[in-house]
Structure formats: C-alpha cells, structure tokens
C-alpha cells in the first residue's frame, strides 16, 4: 500500500477503450502531464504517477474498468489525487476508485481542441456529480495562467476549489405571462398522462455514467424506456433491401447533399459505407415504429463500431423534420412529416431534453429540430465589432440539416476518423447558421433531475476562421459557433455537469427569452429542478 507523503499528489489518467485512440493520443497526454508537473513543482509539490507506461500497449492510460480498480487498490485512500485528462476518456475506468477515495480529488483538463480532453473531463465531472463524489475541477491552456495557478494553490492548501456561480439563479416562473405558464403546465400534463416511450439501443455508451437516468427518476416524468439491443438493429439492417437504401441516398443527392467518396474503405468514405448507413436509418425507423418509440438513442461506439458503418448520418437524418421517407414492410410511411428525435451516444438526459424541446417548439409554432453538441473548445473572436468568447460546439454528426443555412444543400458527409471508427461511415456535416438559440442540459445531482438552461446565439465567423477551428478539432464533424448570454467561459466549465449541451433555434419574431422560460416552466412542471443561467 502506498503511503501519503508531504506535498505529493498522485496522478491517474483515464483513457479510451479503443487501443488506436489511446496510442495516437498518448503524446498529448505526456505533454500535459509534463506541464502539470512543472506547475506543481513551482508550488513545492511533486506528482507520483499511480500507474506506468505500458510498453506492450504503447500508452499509459487506464483503459479498462478492472485495470482502474486494481490501480486504485495501491493508492492511499486519503492521498491528494489528480485525474489529468487531455483526451476523450471512459469515466467508468476510474469511477469505482474515485467513489471510494477519501482524499481530495482534482480533475484537470487541458484547454486544447486537438482531442476531446475538455469533453472527457466534463463527462467525468458530470459522472462524479451523479455519483455524489466530492471533487474539484480546473482547466488551463499551458498551466501557467493566474486563474489556474491561484486555484491550484487553493486546492493544495485546502483540498477544494471555489468557482464563480453568480450566473446561476433558481428558475422562478412568476414573471411569466399566465398564458405561457398554463401552456407549459398543460404540455407537461399531456406527457405525464399520455406517457412517452424512449427506445434505448443499449445503455452506458463509452462509460458515460452521467448519461444513464435511473428508471425511478425518468418514470416520474411520464417517460418509460424500451430497452432494445443493437444486435436487433443490426439484424433489422440485414432485412433492408439495396433498392430501399438507394432510394434514401437518391433523395439526399437530389436535395444537394455532398458525399466525399473515395475507393479506400480503411481511410476514405465509400459509397458502400453510405448505403449501409441508409439501411441503418431505415432499420431504426422500422424498429422504433414496431416498439412505439417516441424518441430513440443508438449507442454505436461500443458493439456496432466493430460491425457496421457509423450511426452519425442516421442520427442527423432522424433529428430533421424534413428527411427521406421510410416505409414499413406493408408500405405505410413511418413518422410522416416528423422528426424522430435521436439522442446521440444514448445520452438519456439529452433524450429527455430533445423530445421535450421538439414537441414544445412545434406547439409554439417554431421549428423543433434540435441536437446535442460536445463542448469541445473555444476562443475569443471579434463578432460584430465586439470581442466575444465563441465556443466550438461540435458533435460527430447528429445535427439536423435544418441547422445549416442551406439545409441539405449546405450539408456534406465525410468519413469518420479511422482511430475511432474503423468501419467508416460519414457524418452529416455543416456550419450552423446564425440565429438565436436556447441551450440546456439535464443532469442528475443528489438523486434528483436538474436542468440548467439559458439563451445565446449561433454566430457567423469568417470562412477561414471556421476552417481553422475545424482543423484544431475534427473537420469531419458539424460545428456551431456558440456565444452564451451572460455566461463566461470559466463559469460554464465550472457549472456544466456534462460533456453535452442541447441547442435549439428560436427563429423569426419569437422572443428567445420567452421560449427559454416556457421550456423551463414545462420542465419544472414535469418535476425537474431548473436553474436559469446568464442574463
């Protein structure tokens, strides 16, 4: 058993399950740990790594849950512990050890868009919040800035870090018009009385403990899970004909969507991969119809990733009201004139939000197409003569085409990165158009459902800046340049309890604050505790 030494913190790092991702991302983790070591050294502290580089694997990440459990057995439970994350990580690799750890815990992320380190850290903090584990959280570009150093010193002195939450207020519907309150209450009552079926194609994607809503909590909303297997989805794909797949693809091509096809399936998107995705799209709708699902989530990145092309193009199509028509075996059109809201990576918190938003927006006369994004990165940029912090909201492909200026004509499909998606498949890629948005996140804290909600806008950046940001992150993925009203970067990082953020446009003359308040009131009427964030 390792014993605690004065001014020594232990370090662990959780990684991906996929060896190719861990090997490629390992140099970035080494750079981060080196900078972190220097920062601590200047404050009179040292780091002791609790696990070593594995020569055979080619990296030093914790890459399985059982590996993490064994490593934590050798760490003094009362020792100060740093979890350093520069990549996407599976939270369950370290969750068991962190739940039983008794010493102060600090999650540290590097402010870099190259790999989803910020995304991974936010997933871990959201998971720890759900698990009721006390922790502190910090982030930095180079680990030399005053914000990071001062708060790191606080953690070393006290075992805790305090952040600014002045942007957060408990939502009070008292200032709303009576008619809007009644609309929200009536909407919530219809959900609870009528019930909603949530189709879940395998839970627990990529260690996202924070994304699993316990049945007892979700039932209170009037939402009930239909647990489906991805093997069922694969089997249903095998029953879809080539002609049916071609019909979906032809529809997209006629709408002007572009596909970056090549001949090398290992590194390029092929037409065959796209047609396989079209079969998945048809199969998903047929299974949703068979089981009466009102919303679905496909896990894909565990299980299906070893069998078929990516689900991301499918997810983007499902989230769009205007989409290729699909028919059952008897010729009946399925979900005509509607989206089938899809929650990426089986994030059930996003699934609740996506369903509520889609149908509430339609009742308000708005376009309900919505999506989740990763909070991937962000930098300052001058927008309309004013310097703003502009987030890079980025997701692997579930964005509806209606979020792009020219719809499908503004959309393209590029092959998913081979290190994550060995079977290929394309995204539904584009740049989100400028406009007002409502953003939100449902999460679990102290065994209760909460939602943080606010307003903002998607802004237009010069093409070269968009390309630069894509190059810094993943150029294959759809992007939104997001500015949040009244919420600074560090406030958002400190308070947001998830790797995902939900966004929906509020178009036309409809006042964006009013839309956010009606949504907040509807969620509150369902029994979710709501914070209004920002202005």
TrEMBL record:
Identify the stretch annotated as signal peptide in this record.
none
Keyword Secreted in the entry? The reply is no
Q: Which UniProt keywords apply?
A: Carbohydrate metabolism, Isomerase
Q: Does the record carry rRNA-binding as a key word?
A: no
Where does the source fall among the domains of life?
Answer: Bacteria
Single GO molecular function: isomerase activity
Q: What is the protein named?
A: Fucose isomerase
The uppermost taxa in this organism's lineage are: Bacteria, Pseudomonadati, Bacteroidota, Sphingobacteriia, Sphingobacteriales
């Amino acid at each position: 058993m390792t014993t605690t030494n004065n001014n020594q913190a232990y370090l662990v790092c959780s990684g991906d399950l996929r060896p190719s991702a861990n090997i490629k991302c390992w140099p970035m983790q080494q750079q981060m740990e080196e900078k972190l070591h220097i920062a601590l050294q200047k404050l009179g502290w040292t780091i002791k790594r609790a696990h070593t580089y594995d020569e055979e694997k080619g990296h030093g990440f914790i890459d399985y849950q059982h590996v993490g459990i064994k490593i934590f057995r050798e760490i003094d439970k009362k020792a100060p512990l740093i979890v350093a994350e520069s990549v996407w990580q599976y939270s369950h690799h370290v969750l068991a050890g962190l739940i039983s750890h008794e010493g102060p815990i600090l999650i540290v992320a590097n402010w870099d868009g190259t790999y989803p380190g910020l995304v991974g850290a936010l997933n871990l903090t959201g998971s720890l919040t759900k698990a009721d584990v006390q922790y502190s959280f910090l982030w930095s570009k180079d680990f030399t800035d005053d914000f990071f150093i001062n708060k790191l010193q606080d953690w070393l002195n006290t075992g805790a870090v305090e952040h600014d939450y002045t942007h957060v207020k408990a939502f009070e519907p008292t200032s709303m018009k009576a008619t809007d309150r009644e609309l929200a209450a009536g909407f919530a009552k219809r959900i609870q009385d009528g019930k909603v079926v949530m189709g879940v194609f395998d839970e627990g994607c990529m260690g996202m403990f924070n994304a699993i809503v316990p049945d007892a909590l979700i039932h209170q909303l009037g939402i009930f899970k239909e647990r489906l297997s991805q093997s069922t989805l694969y089997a249903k794909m095998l029953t879809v004909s080539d002609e049916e797949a071609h019909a979906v693809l032809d529809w997209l091509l006629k709408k002007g969507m572009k596909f970056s096809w090549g001949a090398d399936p290992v590194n390029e998107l092929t037409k065959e991969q796209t047609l396989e995705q079209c079969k998945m799209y048809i199969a998903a709708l047929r299974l949703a119809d068979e089981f009466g699902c009102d919303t679905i989530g496909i896990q894909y990145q565990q299980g299906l990733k070893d069998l078929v092309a990516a689900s991301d193009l499918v997810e983007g199509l499902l989230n769009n009201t205007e989409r290729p028509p699909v028919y059952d075996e008897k010729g009946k059109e399925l979900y005509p004139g509607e989206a089938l809201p899809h929650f990426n990576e089986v994030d059930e918190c996003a699934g609740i939000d996506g369903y509520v938003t889609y149908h509430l927006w339609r009742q308000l006369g708005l376009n309900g197409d919505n999506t989740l994004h990763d909070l991937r990165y962000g930098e300052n940029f001058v927008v309309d003569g004013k310097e703003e912090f502009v987030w890079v909201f980025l997701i692997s492909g579930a964005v509806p085409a209606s979020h792009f200026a020219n719809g499908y004509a503004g959309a393209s499909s590029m092959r998913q990165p081979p290190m994550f998606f060995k079977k290929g498949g394309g995204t539904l890629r584009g740049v989100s158009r400028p406009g007002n948005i409502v953003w939100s996140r449902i999460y679990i804290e102290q065994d209760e459902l909460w939602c943080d909600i606010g307003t903002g806008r998607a802004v237009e950046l010069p093409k070269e800046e968009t390309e630069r940001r894509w190059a810094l992150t993943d150029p294959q993925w759809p992007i939104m340049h997001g500015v949040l009203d009244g919420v600074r970067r560090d406030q958002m990082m400190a308070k947001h309890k998830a790797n995902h953020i939900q966004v929906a446009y509020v178009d036309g003359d409809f006042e964006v604050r009013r839309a956010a308040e009606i949504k907040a009131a509807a969620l509150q009427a369902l029994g979710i505790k709501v914070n209004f964030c920002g202005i």
